[in-house]
Amino acid sequence: MVGGTDEREMARGPGDVSAGTAAFRPCALIPTYDNPRTVRDVVLRVKAHLPAVVVIDDGSGPEGRAAVEAIGAEGLAHVRRRTQNGGKGAAVKTGFQFAHELGYTHALQVDADGQHDLGDIPRFLATAQARPDALVLGAPVYDASAPKGRLIARKITLFWTDFEAGRGVITDPMCGFRVYPLTPALALGRTGDRMDFDIEIAVRLVWAGVPVINLPTKVRYIGRDEGGVSHFRVFGDNVKISWLHTRLSFQRVMVRPWLDLYRRLRRPALPAGR
């Protein structure tokens, strides 16, 4: 099961804020680390479309922690706090488990810095409800605020993702606006804890047989003057992502063909005449 094993929970929020049917009961999942100026606004904007919200505080400092505690105290969201910062991936995996405990079947992941076009939430949810077995990924449409270096890095990552998952299967592996079916996400096993997480879980869900639907969505980078905070570590996270692609590419070439052959051989033979 996907982890998040080092957190100490602080679970507070509304009671049953159900949305959808038993087969499709989604919640919004917002991981946050030191986003005190933006996280409350994101929660309120999300709730205009989806009342069930889960916020995971990934060990924020005093100001960020106070902002999240206030959200929980006001009943705006279910809140769980990790005692130490573990990275975006660690926070999302904690959110998967928490959402599952609360009875939700799907998690709409949204970043806490306000860069996503939350007006697209109904479209993402309608797509996920129509295909509850699928991973719905945001395919970002950037404006002039996007740093050139980030765009180049994404093209490099997409090159390797095309190799690992199949050309065109994943339009963008790094966009944090997506809808996960929780059952296959929780069944994956260990995945990265930091910025490598979004890439790895998308590829591994494809390998697990989960279909992917890519939806275009506008993305705007938020400046510091608006409360935008980037936690991307240029050296450390790029090293992690490079190592991730090395491992995934090796498995794609050296391991997966044998696994696929083994699975085909294990399939029961059809009765004669069928």
Question: How is this fold's topology laid out?
Answer:
Layout lengths: L25 E7 L6 H9 L5 E6 L3 H12 L4 E5 L5 H14 L4 E4 L11 H10 L4 E8 L5 H18 L12 E4 H5 L10 H11 L4 E8 L14 H33 L8
Parallel strand pairs: 1-2, 1-4, 2-3, 5-7
Antiparallel strand pairs: 4-6, 5-6
Helix pairs in contact: 5-7, 5-8
Would you kindly provide a written description of the structure presented here, covering whatever features stand out?
The protein is an alpha/beta fold and 274 residues long. It has a single domain, classed as Alpha-Beta Complex (Spore Coat Polysaccharide Biosynthesis Protein SpsA, Chain A), CATH 3.90.550. 41% of the residues lie in helices and 15% in strands. The protein is built from 8 helices and 7 strands; from the N terminus they run E-H-E-H-E-H-E-H-E-H-E-H-H-E-H. It has a 7-stranded mixed sheet, sandwiched between helices. Strand 2 (53-58), helix 2 and strand 3 form a beta-alpha-beta unit. The protein starts with 25 loop residues before the first strand and ends in an 8-residue tail after the last helix.
Keywords:
274 residues; alpha/beta; Spore Coat Polysaccharide Biosynthesis Protein SpsA, Chain A; seven-stranded mixed beta sheet; 8 helices; 7 strands; 41% helix; 15% strand; globular; disordered N terminus
Q: Report the major sheet.
A: 7 strands, mixed
| Low-pLDDT stretches | 1-20
- Helix percent band: 40-55%
User: In one word, what is the shape?
Assistant: globular
User: What CATH first level would be assigned?
Assistant: Alpha Beta
Could you tell me the CATH topology label.
Spore Coat Polysaccharide Biosynthesis Protein SpsA, Chain A
